[in-house]
Structure formats: structure tokens, C-alpha cells
Amino acid sequence: MSRRDKVERKKIKVAAFQLPSQADYSDNLDRLLSLIEEHRDKGVIVAPEVYLTAYDYAHLESAAEFSAKALERLKEVVDEQIVVLTMILKEGDGFVNRAVVIHKHTVVYQQKKAILFKLGEEDRYLEAGNTQDIMPFEIDGVKYALLICFELRFKELWKQIEDVDIVLIPARWGLPRKPHLEILSRALAVMNQCYVIVANSSDADMASSSAIISPDGEVVQDDESSVIEGLVDFHTIKKIRRYIVMK
Q1: Is 50 exceeded by the pLDDT of residue 6?
Q2: What beta strand segments (E) does 75-205 contain?
Q3: Which secondary structure element, helix H or strand E, spans residue 206, and what is its range?
Q4: Domain tally for the chain?
């Protein structure tokens, strides 16, 4: 699909899943598969960071093994939709938090978490990716970028992903810093004149605050819901960039 085709399409339905991670990995996968099936009308779905296993540092080997098998199952069921999530996976002798973008039964894009959250001891257990790999990518004429949770805080990364249509943010953002997630995600949408889709964990100690944010700062958010639904309107992106010229 060309970018002209994308503009002519005008709108796509999107969803951010706002879910707690259960101790049983299989329960999480079953819930995810059920919601994907329920929301077949959504063009883009984003799940919370490491939703399937959470940061189960005591059982990283098991978490990585389960995630690898879950990825194969997800590729079987995800067809025309774009489904985005991050997983604990094994790489060499270590472990990484890898975002995968699944479309038409294939991982069409992947990106390792590059800036690890030291307060959560991620750097003790996981290997970091390279920030230079955080770049725009395109699917069916739409330009996307992906930031994983803590990476949202770094303004230099906002610069790297300028001109995209949609920024995808799978997150496991803590409750004490809830206002930070909300302020930063809204600022990114307005500053980069794009849509931002935040899917955050709803565990008791997490912030929820999942949202779909438009380039003009309009927010769809409901901390009590497991699914945040909204529209990406490409005309809105075009209009904002035409009337508020940033370059």
C-alpha cells in the first residue's frame, strides 16, 4: 500500500490492551489470544510490556522458553492486524526484552529495549539493545516507531522518530510515576504531531494510564477498562502538520 492509499483510507481502528499479568504464563497468553480474536476489527493492537511473563527474574529461562513458543502461536493467529508486544527472550547466553510487531503471520519488525530501567534492576538481568536501532519503520504505507516504557523519557529518541504517523509504546510503568507517563506521552504526540498508543500494565503497582492520543492532544483513556479503543485519523495528522509548521 502506498502512502497515497493510506491517506485515502483516512482512518484505522486501534486498541491498547490494559491488562494485569497473572502468575501463570498460559493464562496470560489465553487472555491475549481471546482479546485479539474479540478485536478483529482493529487494525493495530498494542499489549503491555512483557505482559505474558512480567519481569519474572527468578525464572528467566522459563519465561524466555514460554515467550518463544507463544510467539509462534501468535504468528499463527495474527493475519491482517498488526499486533505489538514485548517479550523476554534468550539471545546467546543472555536475555533481552524484545518488541515484536506481528503482521500477516510474520514478525515484520523487532527491536530490543535499549535503555533499561535501573530502578527496576533490569540492567542486572537483561542485555540492552542499541539506541541507534530505534528508528521509524513502515507497514502498508503507514510510518511507525516504537518506544519501550522507560525509553519514552529520552528527548533524543523523540528526534530519531520524527515524521512518523504512529508511535507505539508498550509499557510496564509504575504507579508512583503515573503523572510522568501521562505527561510525556501527551507531549510526544503534540511535539511530533503524531498519534501515540500507550498500552500499560494494570497490575496493582502499575500506573494503567493506557491511552490513544492524537496529534492535537486529544486523549482516549480509561483506567477501569481492559481495552482502550480509538481511531487513527490520517487527515488529522495532515491538518496539524499543515497548519502548525514545525520545520
Answers
A1: no
A2: 82-91, 94-103, 106-112, 137-139, 142-146, 166-171, 195-200
A3: none
A4: 1
Instruction: Report the alpha-carbon distance of residue 141 to residue 166 in Å, rounded.
Output: 12
For residues 192 and 176, give the distance between their C-alpha atoms in angstroms, rounded to a whole number.
Answer: 26
Whether 129 contacts 111, CB under 8 Å: yes
- Cell reading at 134: 530505534
Q: Domain span at residue 77?
A: 3-243
What pLDDT, in 10s, does the model give residues 168-223? 999 999 999 999 999 999 999 999 999 999 999 999 999 999 999 999 999 999 99
The answer to whether the CB of 86 falls within 8 A of the CB of 50 is yes
CATH number of the domain enclosing 186: 3.60.110.10
Confirm if 139 and 101 have CB atoms less than 8 A apart: yes
Mean pLDDT score of the chain, rounded to an integer?
96
Confidence of residue 9 (pLDDT cuts 50, 70, 90): low
pTM: 0.95
